[in-house]
Every structure is written in structure tokens, then in C-alpha cells.
Amino acid sequence: MFMWTVGAARNGEFSCWQPTWPELLGAELLPGQADGLHRYPDEPIYASSLPLRDLYRILWSFERIARARAADLLDDPLATEILGNHAVWWDLLCGKITEQETRYRKTLNDLAAAYRAADPKLQDWARRDFLLSPAPGPEPPPAPGLEPRAPGPEPPAPG
């Protein structure tokens, strides 16, 4: 919600902001902003959290998803349908944060690449929230070990 509020203030309605690492640390302010993105507005719903802490919770969740996927513990078509759009969207939100700034960024990037490869329309869907034009050309290949897998055998019928 917070990045939507910032995006609407900076780019107009229906735009989500892509923060940089210095913005999240409070080392860099947006033009015309008295305070950085390192803390939420003084509202009760944000009282016990910080944007950076919340971002790490999200990144750690995607790390667990990636490890479960690498261990072949997830049904890929179902995971792509349920989680793919979230991974691709969060990857775009974190698009200005590099892997050198936080190692968890690579896991999200690799996971999102695998889901984009499995369902290419996810990328264009997510880009609309950041007022980004559709991605040009073909998608890059997925990271090794996270390629889309062929569906496995059908599970046995209940009963």
C-alpha cells in the first residue's frame, strides 16, 4: 500500500513506486519529500513495522518458495498460477534494488524468471502497475535449476 501511495504522489493515480536501496535505508530522499521511504507515515496501521523490515519478510518468503521449488516439492503449474504473478510483481517492485545491495534479491529474480518463462503474460500484466511499457523482445532464459518443468504424472484419483 505504501509504495502505491508514493507512486500516486510521484507519477499519478494507479502507479506503484519502485524504491531504490538508498531510499529504503533513508539515505536518499525523493524530490520534494521531507522524509525518506525508510519509515511509514505516522499512522496506527504502520506502528510496528518499517518498509525495509517488511521487504525482507517478502524476500525471505520467496526464498522459501524457491527452495521448495528446487527440491521439487511444489506442483509447478499450480505454483505458477498461484504464486507466479506475485513473484513477477515483487521482482518489478524491487527492480531498482541490486543483488549487491541484498543477496535475497537474486533469489526473487531467479524465481520470477522461471515463472515468466512458464507464463510470459505475467510480465506485461505486472508492468502495468509501474507504468512500464510491455517488455521488448523475448524474455531472458530462466536461471539454471529453475527452468519450467514439464508436468509430472497425474495424481491418483481419490477414493
Secondary structure tally: strands: 0
**Uncertain regions spanning at least 5 consecutive residues:** 139-146, 148-152
The rounded distance between the terminal residues' Cα atoms is 45 Å
Secondary-structure element order, N to C:
HHHHHH
Q: What's the gyration radius in Å?
A: 17 Å
Question: How much strand?
Answer: under 5%
What would you say this structure looks like, in words?
- The protein has helices at 2-11, 21-25, 51-70, 76-93, 104-118, 121-127.
- It has 6 helices and no strands.
- It is globular.
- The relative contact order is 0.13.
- The model is unreliable at 139-146 and 148-152 (pLDDT under 50).
- It has one domain.
- Helix 3 (51-70) packs across helix 5 (104-118) and helix 4 (76-93) runs parallel beside helix 6.
- The chain has 159 residues and is mostly helical.
Give a brief rundown of this model:
Helices cover 47% and strands 0% of the residues. It is mainly alpha-helical.
Topology:
Layout: H1 2-11, H2 21-25, H3 51-70, H4 76-93, H5 104-118, H6 121-127
